[in-house]
Amino acid sequence: MDFELSEELKMLKEMAYRFAQAEFSGVSHECDEGEKYTAEIRKKAAENGLVGAWVPEEYGGPGAGILGNAIVTEELSKVDMGIGLNIVAATFGCEAIYDYGTEEQKKAYLPRVCSGEWVSAGAFTEPNAGTDVAGYKTRAVKDGDDYVINGNKMFITNATVCDFMVAQCITNPDQKKHNSFSLIIVPADAKGITRNKIHGKMGIRSSDTGEIAFEDVRVPQSNLVGVEGNGFRQLMHFFDTTRVMVAAQALGLSEACLDTCVKYVKERTAFGAPLGTYQLTQMKLTEMAIRIEALRGLVYKSAWLIDENRPDYTLAAMAKYFGGQTAVFCANAAVELHGGYGYIDEYAVQKWYRDAKILELYEGTKEAEIMTIGRVLQAR
Ligand SMILES: Cc1cc2nc3c(=O)[nH]c(=O)nc-3n(C[C@H](O)[C@H](O)[C@H](O)COP(=O)(O)OP(=O)(O)OC[C@H]3O[C@@H](n4cnc5c(N)ncnc54)[C@H](O)[C@@H]3O)c2cc1C
Fold first, then answer.
1. Known catalytic residues?
2. In which residue ranges of the chain is pLDDT below 70?
3. Which of 17, 113, 128, 212 lies 20 to 30 A from 45 at CA?
4. Which residue's CA is the nearest one to ligand 1's atom 23?
5. pLDDT digits (tens, 9 = 90+) for 258-268
6. Ligand 1 in contact with 203 (CB < 6 A)?
7. How far apart are CA 204 and CA 300, in angstroms?
8. Does domain 7-114 have CATH number 1.10.540.10?
9. CB-CB neighbours of 10 under 10 Å
10. Long-range interactions of 211-214: CB distance < 8 A, separation 24+
11. How many angstroms separate the CA atoms of 182 and 285, rounded?
12. DSSP 73
């Protein structure tokens, strides 16, 4: 058993962190306040091999695997989770193309996203159905060689900045619910698409989130990803791997909270001694450290197993479930340890507290992860 990262992964980790410090720190506050998407930083990240780190070299990526991608995500999230998401979620949706797409689709989309030229989106959630994936209503009806798509998508990351999206649509309404869906690639500039940015998010405000409406949107049937009618199962499998990325975001944010607090409690004094000398302070730091260590184990192991072709998707769901709660716990403790200063936007912990909550919501709420894990435990 070897818990040591390879030399390549250590170098990638260091490089990703240095990149985030150099590129994010100076603009983090401004992008958070102004809800600014960071296209230039994403392009620079692509030049450094940080976009689509999981994409194999044959499709234009650096081929760092799911573990490499988790490590990049962790390091970027230590500095600014929103700007980091603009980099690591630039490929969001492409996982389905890689897993199920044709060779032509892989070659057409993956290299252009990894190079920084294009941005992808995964358009699944709808205004009336999020957790209930089988409740989506968007329809794709065959007409000649095309699909004609009608419906609405909600809370889509990269909605107004993407060049294409992978959308979940009902193609086989006469089949049982779980056999009625298909994933379809839709160019963002197709006629009949309306995209609106959602303003006023609590956190990750530099990430672009929006609504997408499809009104008689025509795409060729060759844009189908995988097998028609298999979209539900394909999407469930898609989340199996993307959950690891969200758990890695949680890991990075939690580590940043702990590091910042350790420094702060050594400097800040109360009752004539540094805060760190008090056992109640040590209790908070200790609980943060233990949860982070446990989370790192879950994230790295679930990522590594996927790279080893021995995936344990229940472990990935556990990483996502525990990750959200660890980040929320650590960000809360960080604000408390900073006292009143933690409540002011001059201190990063205030932003991290707002950013952390999304980790318990997107890519499956924590309740959805419980459903996934609970089902498997009883089926074993
Ligand atoms: C910033 C942001 C970015 C996002 N990015 C994307 C994206 O790129 N692509 C995309 O498709 N979606 C995206 N989402 C959507 C996100 O994945 C959904 O919001 C999430 O899955 C929850 O769905 P919902 O909002 O419809 O809540 P609902 O499904 O309505 O759930 C509401 C509450 O009920 C609970 N609940 C639901 N069913 C059950 C049950 N059976 N038992 C117990 N509790 C239950 C949920 O856990 C939750 O607490 C994003 C959301 C946000 C906020």
1. 363
2. none
3. 212
4. 130
5. 999 999 999 99
6. no
7. 24
8. yes
9. 12
10. 211/127, 211/152, 211/153, 211/154, 211/155, 211/156, 211/159, 212/123, 212/152, 212/153, 212/156, 212/159, 212/165, 213/151, 213/152, 213/153, 214/138, 214/149, 214/150, 214/151, 214/152, 214/153, 214/167, 214/186
11. 47
12. H
Query: How far is residue 379's CA from residue 365's CA, in Å, rounded to a whole number?
Result: 22
Please give the pLDDT value at position 380.
Answer: 83
User: What are the structure tokens assigned to 244, written together?
Assistant: 């690891």
Q: What's the per-residue H, E or C state across 253-305?
A: HHHHHHHHHHHHHHHCEECCEEHHHCHHHHHHHHHHHHHHHHHHHHHHHHHHH
Report the CATH number of the 120-229 domain: 2.40.110.10
pLDDT of res. 2 = 87
CA distance readout (Å), 197 to 127, 161, 294, 360:
14, 9, 36, 22
Domain boundary assignment for the chain: 7-114, 120-229, 233-379
d(CA 41, CA 326): 28
Residue nearest to atom 50 of ligand 1 (CA): 155
Q: Rounded to the nearest 10 degrees, how much is the dihedral formed by the CA atoms of 353, 356, 358, 360?
A: -120
- Ligand 1 centroid distance, CA of 24 (Å): 28
CA–CA separation, 124 vs 170, rounded Å? 11
Phi-psi category of residue 63: left, alpha or beta, with phi > 0 → left and psi -120 to 50 → alpha? left
- Decide: 171 and 231 in contact? Cβ < 8 Å: yes
Give the CATH number of domain 233-379; options: 3.40.50.300, 3.30.465.60, 3.40.50.150, 1.20.140.10.
1.20.140.10
Which residue, among 247, 232, 237, 245, has the nearest Cα to 313 in the 3D structure?
Answer: 237
Cβ(156) – ligand 1 distance below 6 Å = yes
Neighbours of 3 (CB within 10 A): 8
Residue 209 Cβ contacting ligand 1 at under 6 Å: yes
- Residue 121 bridge partners (DSSP): 165
d(CA 289, CA 294): 9
Would you say 131 and 364 are in contact if contact means Cβ atoms under 8 Å apart? yes
**Does 233-379 match 7-114 at the fold level?**
no
| Helix/strand/coil for 30 | helix
